[in-house]
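Dear colleague,

As promised, here are the two records you asked about, laid out in our usual form so they can be pasted straight into your sheet.

NAME FIELD: protein one
SEQUENCE, THEN STRUCTURE:
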Amino acid sequence: MIGGGKTMRFLAAMALAGSALIATAAPAQDDGASEIIVTAQKRTEHLPSVMTQLPYLDRRPVIGLKRQADSAVRHIEIVSDSRDEDMRKHEVESMLLAALDRAKKDGLGLVIGQYEVTEVTRENWRTLLPALAKKDDSEEEDEDDSDDDDDDNNAKPKPDFEDDGSNATVRLMVKTKLDGTIAEAQKKISTFVKGVPATGRSLITQKGMMALTIVNPEQYRDEIYRRIAEGTKHAAGFYGTEYGATISGLDREIAWTQVSNTQVFLYIPYSFTVGK
């Protein structure tokens, strides 16, 4: 029961809204361990496939939960421009392994993903980067989809590894726990990048801007429910005891957006009306 003497009805509404960011095409369904990248952008192109199948609501409710992000990430590229293809792959692989060792020593992580990040380790990198791990180049990659790139080339993320004939490139991110300012996080990442030893003509460069991550947004659902209940009860109270609120959208997935250099805002795209 919420509201002055009126039973507040919680109506289902299968629509989703929100901001998400920057990983694989996997849905942003939270299983208790997922870590999601967050950006301040509000574009459906940055939503996983299950999200873009539903209407996009360009409105963020006032009530939600603002908290510090769990980590900060920065894109990096490991590149080699050696003339020989096998040598290019060898050099970026060697520098990747050196980066993994250095990251572990520095308390950082190397991750891949555009929405949900996955940690790269010495044990799983071959699985996560199969094109780099493949030693037998006699089996050519399937190029049948090259004609499909004309319409959505800009929307497609770049592959985690590619060799264009001149440069071999591994793309991933450095992740650091966000326990201070964003400047401190950037300093940690820059120090790490400078400390990774090169192999041959390989090098590491930082790309883009820092982004934030949030671990398992679904864990905050109950707290958001509580805040919505308090907020709607307070709003209905201005109209008298005979008024109550009708809420819709509480079954929607949690959405998120970046609201400062270090903070994210988690919310459910709900709506409510006040009436007798």
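NAME FIELD: protein two
SEQUENCE, THEN STRUCTURE:
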Amino acid sequence: MPGFIKPQLATLKSKAPKGEQWLHEIKYDGYRIQIHVNAGKKKVYTRNGLDWTKRFSVIAGALDLPGQAIIDGEVVVIHEGRTNFSELQAELAAGKQDRLVYYAFDLLWRDGDLRKLPQIERKQALSDLIGENDIDLPVLYSEHLTGDGQEMFEHAAKLGWEGIISKNAQAPYRSDRNEGWLKIKSVQKGKFPVIGFVKDPTGVAALYLGKREGKDLVYMGKVGTGWSRTVSSQIRKQLDTVVSPKSKLTKQVKKPKATWVDPVFVADIEYRDITSEGLLRQSSFKGLTPGKKS
């Protein structure tokens, strides 16, 4: 039985593929985990091969299987009907496992190497393995749909899920990023007042963002991607006109490199989520427009 196997990674696409040869699964927002079972002994590896058996001992303990197996999947916390990465981080930081759920989506080894088998056969073997051994929560088999992947993606986006993974039903398992697996991600969009920036020689290295909550202006984190050098220079010229000696946030934050500004300009931002600390996650800049001066 092999040790840690490098995971297969999905290639980002803007639209789901068409055709009956594709299986479509929900994309879970959690930690990629590989579980090894060998004659009752269990090991849990992260996507980079770190041994996290102790952190996920409850999930490993639920996989009461005879023989040998290597299962690929994702550990998540479900909050308000969808997987929530911030809640997962908080749970792990507290050393808790009560809310952890493991979505198993591939079987790489079952008393022998299964990686050369087609995706659909590996999933069927995984489904059989979980069903025949009465494996229950916190382990769940990751279901899939065939047919119109784009329709599934649009439903997933409306429900606030991260997106979908489309997998070629006839492809083997390959330990690299390839087009056997495709990921189609949904994003959220919002407008946030710019409250400050970090300088770089010709423009901005990052923007600090806020959000109005009633009469309060609260800190929402920063964005540092999404502009070209030319746009960066244009942003800097606009913000230089509204520099302020101090932050206009209701509750101050310490940012030694910040140049504070009046919240006159509003940034259009795409982001994945809002963390448990109330900050934008995986944010990207899309544009800057004049707002109302406060």
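A couple of things worth noting about protein two: The helical segments are 57-62, 85-93, 119-132, 149-158, 229-239. The longest strand covers residues 68-79.

Best,
R.
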